[in-house]
Amino acid sequence: MQTNIYDDEPHSIFVIGNPLRFLSRKGRNIGVYLSGGLLAIGWWTFIDAVINSTKHNGTSHMGFEDWFSGILTTFGMIVINLIDKSRLQDEAAAYAGSNLVWKARLFLFLGFALIAGGFAGSCCVLIIKYIIHLESARPYINYGIAGVAQNGLIMLSTFVLWVAQNTQQEYEYNLRL
Hints:
By secondary structure, this protein is an all-alpha fold. About 65% of the residues lie in helices and about 0% in strands. The chain has helices spanning about 25-55, 65-80, 85-90, 90-95, 100-135, 140-165. Helix 1 (about 25-55) runs antiparallel to helix 6 (about 140-165), helix 2 (about 65-80) runs parallel beside helix 6 and helix 5 runs antiparallel to helix 6. It is elongated. The mean pLDDT is about 80.
């Protein structure tokens, strides 16, 4: 008889059930702090570029189009991580007449659309504004790279927080007296 080393996780559909199983007790805290750090580094990178843009010619070369993609990505992160994860898998509620599963999945899609739109917007700003229009002038291209880096770090922060919120949930026992 062949035994599977992953038999202790019967609800998993993957061969390796939970890659962060060894972090089951502290994984949530580590993931939340890491996610917050990535979000802070992303915004710090962008704010640093905004401050440095005023050093050349005394005016800022970064307008609202530079800020908008980071704001969209941050809103997407907030929407995604405010969704109750148990609502995404609850198929029984859909047959009972409740549209809660459908609404949760819709908001999850909208959150990912906001993140993807923000990242695509920052890439477009980098290409159109800083590479094509300003002809890749050295101090200016750094501002576009900072916007793309900001959105990439916010996306990574969203993923880390999503995994961290789901890590401890499988191993958490609720005791009621």
